[in-house]
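Tutorial, part two.
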Amino acid sequence: MHSIGDAFGLALSLVLSGDRDLLQIVLLSLRVSLTATAVACLLGLPVGALVAIARFRGRSVVLIVMNALMGLPPVVVGLLVYLQLSRAGPLGFLGLLYTPTAMIVAQTLLITPIVAALSRQVLEDLHTEYAEQFRSLCLSRVQAVQALLWDGRYALLTVGLAGFGRAVAEVGAVIIVGGNIDHLTRVMTTAIALETSKGDLALALALGLILLFIALGVNAAVQSVRLTAARHAHV
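Running the prediction step on this input gives:
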């Protein structure tokens, strides 16, 4: 085991030199999380928009469930996906367990409720502002959803970035369905957990630095989107 100072030095060396194994882990992490975020947005944004503009019996129950699902325990999501994709499960014939696809499925299930709930709040506020105008234009529900999604695109981009930040930092679900297999399903969070347990602090710190940089980048992007939205609102 290296001293902390030596470990930081080796970590910086790995990052700056573009270590092959390090790069492979980072690229797989980004591929899995970006794909999961894209699918979650395709599923969650329309659901959030529909719930935002619809008024129906039991809507309050739906809102409670949507908000509750935002706090889904990752290990429970991983377990549910594992049960579906295992050989004894209904989807076991697909052979997806311990593959990046299984990890994408787990992350998608984890962040779709977050995207849906956050977008619902954003779009409901917009709908309250535009409801009278929509009625005067006799817009259908589909047209109203399209208008809200377009007008709230900057805020919704923030929602998407929040979903990505949640996905890329996930460890519990992906390690259950991915197995943390070297050169196949090892992502940044699972690699950090493994390398720390092995005492290889250099690689763990290098991955941690990259993950921290990504987190800072996501937060900077969110702030930039908010400023852009504010400027457009005053035009």
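The chain is about 80% helix and 0% strand. In part three we will examine how such features are distributed along the chain.
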